[in-house]
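Module 6 notes. Inverse folding takes a fixed backbone as the condition and produces residue identities as the prediction. Think of it as a translation problem where the source language is geometry and the target language is the twenty amino acids. Below is one complete input and output pair. Work through it position by position during the lab.
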């Protein structure tokens, strides 16, 4: 039976990608990390030896600690974090348990270099629509919840990327962009190893809306309409992104949990 201070891999996997997902901290030692140089989606690495230094960053928050096997390192770090006022659980079985469950993993080499505060920094064209909103949603929900996004004039994206050390996306000629008939969102799913059925379903909707192929999915026309409406409702691109996060949260949950559900009015179920 799972301890009250433990969470199973399947339970954590259900939370990843949602706004209520706890912060996931990977405290594996370098030797164990080198055996499996990948991360549970959304997790970030920390040195267990310096927990007292970084514990204040998570005061009052909910976190899950993962080490190699879910034993001494994660148990000790979680206990210390609870001492500092953090709601800390450990991942049952640790990273090896996650591997055994065959759940998604993000290759560490696919992650851009973080800034001095440990955040990834991204830059793209201003006035984002569809793909340039879907990609930040994906990054914040599955890669780096603290990621910073810069929206700048199209002609300055590469210059800003060079000067500020940001990763450019969704423009011509860069790594994180369209490939053939697919979108930048598709590229990120592939490169980050996030090839789950719900995200693949969402990718089809994004692709249809972003490339004027509304026949790819019935929901693509709705996403296009919502995206165009958001772009007219908000002048500030970051405010627009904030509003779009909820849209993509809802679409993801539909893709994951509700595709077979219907709704009508009046409800005639059970009528004689």
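Target side of the pair, the amino acids:
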């Amino acid at each position: 039976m799972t301890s009250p201070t433990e969470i199973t891999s399947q339970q954590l996997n259900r939370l990843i990608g949602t706004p209520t997902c706890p912060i996931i901290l990977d405290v594996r030692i370098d030797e164990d990390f080198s055996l499996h140089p990948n991360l549970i989606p959304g997790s970030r690495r920390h040195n267990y030896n310096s927990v007292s230094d970084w514990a204040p960053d998570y005061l009052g928050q909910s976190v899950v600690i993962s080490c190699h096997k879910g034993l001494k390192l994660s148990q000790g770090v979680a206990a210390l974090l609870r001492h500092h006022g953090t709601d800390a659980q450990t991942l049952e079985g640790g990273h090896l348990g996650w591997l055994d469950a065959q759940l998604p993993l993000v290759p560490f080499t696919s992650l851009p270099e973080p800034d001095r505060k440990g955040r990834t920094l991204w830059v793209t064209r201003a006035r984002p629509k569809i793909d340039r909103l879907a990609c930040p949603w994906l990054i914040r929900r599955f890669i780096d919840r603290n990621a910073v996004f810069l929206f700048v004039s199209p002609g300055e994206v590469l210059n800003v990327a060079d000067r500020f050390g940001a990763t450019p996306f969704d423009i011509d000629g860069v790594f994180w962009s369209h490939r053939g008939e697919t979108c930048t969102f598709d590229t990120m799913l592939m490169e980050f190893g996030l090839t789950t059925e719900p995200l693949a379903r969402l990718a089809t909707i994004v692709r249809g809306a972003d490339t004027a192929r509304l026949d790819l999915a019935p929901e693509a026309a709705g996403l296009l309409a919502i995206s165009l409406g958001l772009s007219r409702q908000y002048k500030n691109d970051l405010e627009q992104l904030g509003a779009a996060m909820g849209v993509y949260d809802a679409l993801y949950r539909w893709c994951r949990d509700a595709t077979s559900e219907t709704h009508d009015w009046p409800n005639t179920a059970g009528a004689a």
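Reference fact for the lab report: The radius of gyration is 20 Å.
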